Amino acid sequence: PHSSRAAVDPAVKILEKARKQLESKDDQATVKMKITEPNGEDKTREMTLQTLRTENGVEALIRIQSPSDIKGTAFLSKIEGREERQWLYLPSTKQVRRVATAQKSTGVLGSELTPEDLNPTLIRGAQLHLAKEEPTQSIIEMTPASNTGEYTKILVTFSRPQGLPLKTEYYKGDQVAKTVEFLNYVDVNDHIERAQLIRVRNLKKNRGTDLELS
């Protein structure tokens, strides 16, 4: 008998292809965020977004530009391995406070957005396999480690042959609790692709967040 190396799941190759097109040392963008409440009321915020990839993980910094009553508010997220730490700066008090773990599920600045929503290839501690492959898309199923989040599984749809994420579906039990869509990709710098519109929908809360990036 002879030993052989286990075959690599096709999902790993799909994820690696996506990362090569999405990941860069640093990023900056102007963002228009629209939060839609269950009653249909909209709130719009404009901000700058900066991300930095380090040896240990990823850092994201958001600074609010408008409306005027919250201008100057800033949010910092550091993701290292399976650990995520967050801080909030409030200009009214000129103080920085650490965001408690229990508050993280509320999303960035009261929206339905989390830092991981910006790049679904960064989901930490998940087992993954190729769930479905069609002529125009591939679907990867991710099963997060039990201590890394509130979702039981995550389905990520990638375009074929481009290999870019199109949609992320977060499940609680057998029901979809949240979806994130990535639209209008452009080549921003040396074959690094960026979606110019990200739509987040929390189906449990009936709340939505749209991000327009430039």
Q: Please list the strands of the largest sheet in the order they lie side by side.
A: 6-5-4-3-2-1-13-12-11-10-9-8-7
Rounded average pLDDT: 86
What structural class is derived from the secondary structure elements? mainly beta
**Radius of gyration computed on alpha carbons:** 18 Å
Order of helices and strands: HEEEEEEEEEEEEE
- Tertiary shape: globular
Main beta sheet, described? Answer: 13 strands, antiparallel
The total strand number stands at 13
| End-to-end separation | 58 Å
Spans of at least 5 consecutive residues whose pLDDT stays below 50 are: 1-5
Count of runs of 4 or more consecutive helical residues: 1
Please estimate the helix content.
under 10%
Assess the beta-strand content as a share of residues. over 45%
Relevant terms:
13-stranded antiparallel β-sheet; 214 residues; mainly beta; 13 strands; 54% strand
Summarize the structure.
With 214 residues, this protein is mainly beta. Helix content is 6%, strand content 54%. The chain has one helix and 13 strands; from the N terminus they run αβββββββββββββ.
SSE inventory with pairings:
Layout: H1 10-22, E1 26-36, E2 42-53, E3 57-66, E4 74-80, E5 83-90, E6 95-98, E7 126-133, E8 137-144, E9 153-159, E10 165-172, E11 175-189, E12 192-202, E13 207-213
Antiparallel strand pairs: 1-2, 1-13, 2-3, 3-4, 4-5, 5-6, 7-8, 8-9, 9-10, 10-11, 11-12, 12-13
Describe this structure in words.
- With 214 residues, the protein is mostly beta strands.
- Helix content is 6%, strand content 54%.
- The chain has one helix at 10-22; strands spanning 26-36, 42-53, 57-66, 74-80, 83-90, 95-98, 126-133, 137-144, 153-159, 165-172, 175-189, 192-202, 207-213.
- The chain has a 13-stranded antiparallel beta sheet, covered by helices on one side.
- Strand 3 (57-66) and strand 4 form a beta hairpin.
- The longest helix has 13 residues, at 10-22.
- The termini are far apart.
